[in-house]
Amino acid sequence: MHLRIIFLGIVLIVLSFGQVKSQDFVPYRSVYVELGGAGLPYSFNYDFRFDKKDIHSWGMRVGVGGYAFFEGDKFFSLPVLVNKLYGPGPGYFEMGAGLTLVAFSSSKPNSRSDFTQFVLPFEGSPNMMGVMSFGYRHLPKQGGFTWRTNLNPVFNTKGFWPLWIGIGIGYAFQ
After folding, report:
1. pTM of the entire structure?
2. Exposed, middle or buried, 99 (CB in 10 Å: 0-12/13-18/19+)?
């Protein structure tokens, strides 16, 4: 239920911004859904540049993801990363790093559920996981449909997993 409300909020934000066409247009904000990546199973994300006039400035993304199964397994993730874009556009190399807060519960007490253990095991809930991002972002200079693919190495106190990937689609706007 909560994810539907969040998704509806993201859709309303996207629809409320008209696309302006001008020489100085910089699509410094975007909303997107990502499968895999920093949000682990999936996440809804908001990304923005700190300098609204420079697409190559440092930026930040904040997302939310999770699920609940009828068997009682629940999982929540909150990825927060800083990132930088390199290249002339509309294709950019993206590099970033940050943390993902994870919280989970299982209907089976004192057991580790396969549905709440992604990539690396966690020692209790809530917990934090470090995440990096190296990938490609397609971001049209006038905004609109955007997509991305990233290699997202993840790490925590239990280890390091270098081969986690993320694929996302969304909408970029000013």
Report:
1. 0.80
2. middle
Q: Please give the Cα distance from 147 to 90 (Å, whole number).
A: 11
Listed in order, strand segments (DSSP E) in 9-58 are 29-36, 42-49
Q: How confident is the model over 49-71, as a mean pLDDT? A: 90
| Residue written as token pair 């994810």 | 3
Sign of CA dihedral 106, 112, 114, 119: positive
* Mean pLDDT, residues 164-174: 95
Long-range CB pairs of 105-108 (<8 Å, 24+ gap) are: 105/72, 105/73, 105/74, 106/72, 106/73, 106/74, 107/71, 107/72, 107/73, 108/72
Q: Does residue 156 surpass a pLDDT of 80?
A: yes
By the 10 Å C-beta count (0-12 exposed, 13-18 middle, 19+ buried), 117 is classed as: middle
| Residues 6+ away with beta carbon under 8 Å from 68 | 74, 75
| Per-residue pLDDT tens over the stretch 102-148 | 988 877 665 555 555 667 777 778 989 999 999 999 999 889 999 99
